[in-house]
Amino acid sequence: MDVEIAEERIFVLTERFSLDHAEGRAWARRADAFGTVARLGGLLNRSTSEDYECVYRERRLQPFWHLHATATAGYERTRSYTLTVSPSVRSVRVFGEELPVDKGQFRLSGLESCRDETSRQYLFDGLSRTENPTLASYLTYPGTVTDADALAEAARGGVVVVPPENKASMLVREVMSAAIGKIDADRVLEERVTVDLVDLVYRPVFAFRYRHAGKEAVVEFDGLTGDIRPDGATFEQYLGKILEPRFLLDVGVEAVNIFVPGTQLVRIIAEQGAKQVAQHRDA
């Protein structure tokens, strides 16, 4: 089997809203964050804006993985075909061979030349490690290719850069496992898996922690869609931390051979992945 894998890239989507705008929208929904507590203890009765305090503000980059794979197989197999003829037919001559007819049918044998090609996109949440197709909606927003140094500079500027829980090598093996199907063949002529997109995508998120009546709750604001979550979370444990370039593990021959021993691995340029992104956005 031949395996082609694109170079891993880091992609940062451009936020559409400012921190001030996000904070204003979140402030308007602050009471929703205490909804459960309010139902249990009536904490929000006659509450005013002075009863709330924003104790923490966070601008972060939250990760997800975007991969795309194509599996190609060329093979041959021998098959028999049963053909029906009229009741009066007793035999059929095909390519000089006399074939008997039994109960109005005769059989032919042939060599089938086959080629299968399947293509699929994969999206994995960078925090939960689970596949999440709904993340595709974020791919419609513009962004730029960056690197670990640029992320480190953003972290020094106060942006919380959250590291992914799942690494590229692990996800490539998972994608290959899904892409490789069982082939019903007598002889395999070609078998190739091309992972032409291995992107770590960061999307902007704003989070605000409010304190009210001795309780705290977080409101999240999506920096792309403008959606608000009153049951949000913060990641201040990563505030100021610089990610090592190793967090984006290189997918090498050793990593792939764990799943497919004897694999012939070829690295392909990341521009092929960029073409896939463009095709997805144009669709």
Can you give a write-up of this model?
The chain has helices spanning 19-28, 35-41, 148-156, 168-179, 253-257, 271-282, and strands at residues 2-6, 9-13, 52-84, 91-94, 97-100, 105-125, 143-146, 160-161, 187-212, 215-222, 228-229, 264-268. The strands form 2 sheets. Strands 1, 2, 3, 6, 7, 8, 9, 10, 11 and 12 form a 10-stranded mixed beta sheet that branches. It has a two-stranded antiparallel ribbon with strand order 4-5. 24% of the residues are buried. The two termini are 31 Å apart. It is built from 6 helices and 12 strands.
How many DSSP H or I helices?
Answer: 6
- List low-confidence stretches: 37-44, 270-278
Helicity range of the residues? 10-25%
Helical/strand content category: alpha/beta
The average pLDDT is: 84
Rough outline:
elongated
Q: How many beta-strand runs?
A: 12
What can be said about the biggest beta sheet?
Answer: 10 strands, mixed
> Regarding quaternary structure, how should these chains be classified?
single chain
From the structure above, extract its key features:
single chain; alpha/beta
